[in-house]
Protein: Peptidase A1 domain-containing protein
Organism: Triticum aestivum
Amino acid sequence: MARLLVALVCAYLTTTVGASLRLELSRLEAKASSLATVRRAIAPVRWRQGWHVTEYRIGDPPQPVQSIIDVGSGLVWTQSATCHPRCISQDLDCYNPDRSRSAHSVPCDNRTLCAAAHAGRCTGHNAACTIMAKNGAEGIELWDLAGDLGVDVFTFGSEKVTIAFGRMREIKLFKPEILGGASGVIGLGKGPLSLVSQLGHTKFSYCFTEDVNATSHLVIGSSAVLGDGPVTSIPFVVNPSEEPYNTLYYVPLIGLSVGNVRLAIPTAAFNMRRASPWLWTGGTIIDSCIETMFLVDVAYKALRQEVARQMDSSLLPTTSEWPEYCVDRWDVGAVPPLVLHFGDGADLVLPATNYWMPLADDRTCMVVYSSAERNTTLPMNETTVIGSYMQQDMHVLYDIGKGEISFQAAHCSSM
Ligand SMILES: *[C@@H]1O[C@H](CO)[C@@H](O)[C@H](O)[C@H]1NC(C)=O
Ligand SMILES: *[C@@H]1O[C@H](CO)[C@@H](O)[C@H](O)[C@H]1NC(C)=O
Ligand SMILES: *[C@@H]1O[C@H](CO)[C@@H](O)[C@H](O)[C@H]1NC(C)=O
Ligand SMILES: *[C@@H]1O[C@H](CO)[C@@H](O)[C@H](O)[C@H]1NC(C)=O
């Protein structure tokens, strides 16, 4: 079950990195990216302890880092050597700017990279551009992160490019294993400081597998293309302009089917709505940092009812309230596919192995949950999230220029 808990925590991590950091970094000029152009960046991706982690190097001479791929975040960050002992354990040595000839701090009066929103606390011409994020929802402090913005040369294979990124020096999390040994996060959202924006590109692709022995690739730039064969393309929903919603990848989910049975869910249940001047809730986002799927509660209730109806004889009695449904692992072949229906007529078919996960005791369990479970609050408790497990063994292409995301069945462990 530890795996599922981590997945839920990641939901907080994603929204909060987005929310607070992007707030701090608001009013950036759209072209913070003019730092660099690079033809393409290709980085290996491996599965480890709940995350898809990519590897590249920072600095001159280059220092290796391992970063969790997070399409829900608009910032690249890594723990920095000054972090010790206030950071969490990672497998590689921390990035040390003092050992890099190409490392620079970004001063807080740099209007291109540091936020004007931050100027109130800009204490002088050469003061650092401080970034901070905190999650204190309901008095439970889940995590707390602080650092400063720097620039350095990132090396992807043979390509080198100068990137602005967070050098974190203080990270507190309620679960120390939260990063799974990685060094930080690589944000691939739509915001100006995400890796894809800074590289000056509008396309990227990945192909996730949870095969621990396999290496797949994150490809950023024009060489991110799908192969021959059927493709399901879904247009992105236009983002709200407020932070952090402007960095997320929203898709127009309107309904679900279990096998051939269309569930009776009002389409409006999936709509995005403004809950207050700075708060958007609802909608459906694609994420890579959350492993499982969270459905808006009314859709989840319809799903569980239909799954129970169709699967009744094979369902095992459960020992915990979470996950609700399990079958013997040899019975997973009897689980019908889950079909996601999108607004423009596209259907994305998730086979059983993309929404039922092998867990302990030879059980395979449905890893789709209600967004409202576990006392989450707005906006996450009403938002539908399509996590990384649902995207496994699909080659996924984000084409921000064209405004769509495409999925193609693939053997990701051999790509
Ligand atoms: C901000 O910092 C970047 C990176 O060091 C630099 O290229 C840019 O010229 C700076 N902009 C300003 C306005 O100082
Ligand atoms: C990964 O490789 C190890 C060592 O070669 C092997 O024992 C293990 O079964 C492999 N795991 C998978 C999922 O293929
Ligand atoms: C949700 O909140 C209620 C009331 O505060 C509490 O009794 C319950 O244990 C909480 N559930 C979870 C899963 O945290
Ligand atoms: C979501 O949380 C808010 C409080 O933040 C609550 O008012 C609302 O009823 C919750 N929605 C659901 C579907 O539980």
Observations:
- The pocket of 2-acetamido-2-deoxy-beta-D-glucopyranose (ligand 1) is lined by residues 35, 104, 106, 110-113, 151 (CB under 6 Å).
